[in-house]
């Protein structure tokens, strides 16, 4: 094959490679926006995890939590019959605030009492973990775009913090009601994240 023919073959191969590439748009943070998958659930097509969290917050989190939240008695019963894997549920508890843990300014906690034991409830401004997402009942298979599912936890955690009042030392010693998502694991509470917080009248 002559040099000219080799050049033509290389150029043709490069053209084929280029035409096989998909150009992906970037969002405002410079991150790739996943292209729509024809098999994805219509309601989540072309939606960022932040958009999913915002649009489903009221129905999948707040309304569901208010409707299905376990009270202290039901939570105690559930802890006595642990499942074989972690489970995230919604819970509503009213208790005295023992203290406000501000040792980490980015991950503050309200320490309440449950069954005579301290229960640290995450209030942000940074919240980690999958507790809220998993309590909503969303499953991995609900998303053809698995990146959305993976990032939905962070989006829900950020959304939760937006709806919480400012927590400071003045909450200590007062009665408060917390609507939260908790992860139960092996008969104990692994994680608790506040969804709504309010002080009760003394």
Largest sheet: 5 strands, antiparallel
Termini distance? 92 Å
Q: Stretches where pLDDT falls below 50 for ≥5 residues?
A: 14-20
Topology as a string of helices (H) and strands (E): HHHEEEHHEE
Number of helices: 5
- Overall mean pLDDT stands at 84
What does the radius of gyration come to?
A: 24 Å
Task: Label the structural class.
Answer: alpha+beta
Tell me what you see in this structure.
It is built from 5 helices and 5 strands; from the N terminus they run H-H-H-E-E-E-H-H-E-E. The chain is an alpha+beta fold and 202 residues long. The chain has a 5-stranded antiparallel beta sheet, with helices on both faces. A hairpin with a 2-residue loop joins strand 2 (107-114) and strand 3 (117-125). Helix 2 (49-68) packs across helix 5. 28% of the residues are buried.
SSE inventory with pairings:
Layout: H1 3-20, H2 49-68, H3 72-80, E1 87-101, E2 107-114, E3 117-125, H4 131-135, H5 146-162, E4 175-185, E5 188-199
Antiparallel strand pairs: 1-2, 1-4, 2-3, 4-5
Helix pairs in contact: 2-5
Keywords:
single chain, 202 residues, alpha+beta, 5-stranded antiparallel beta sheet, 5 helices, 5 strands, 34% helix, globular
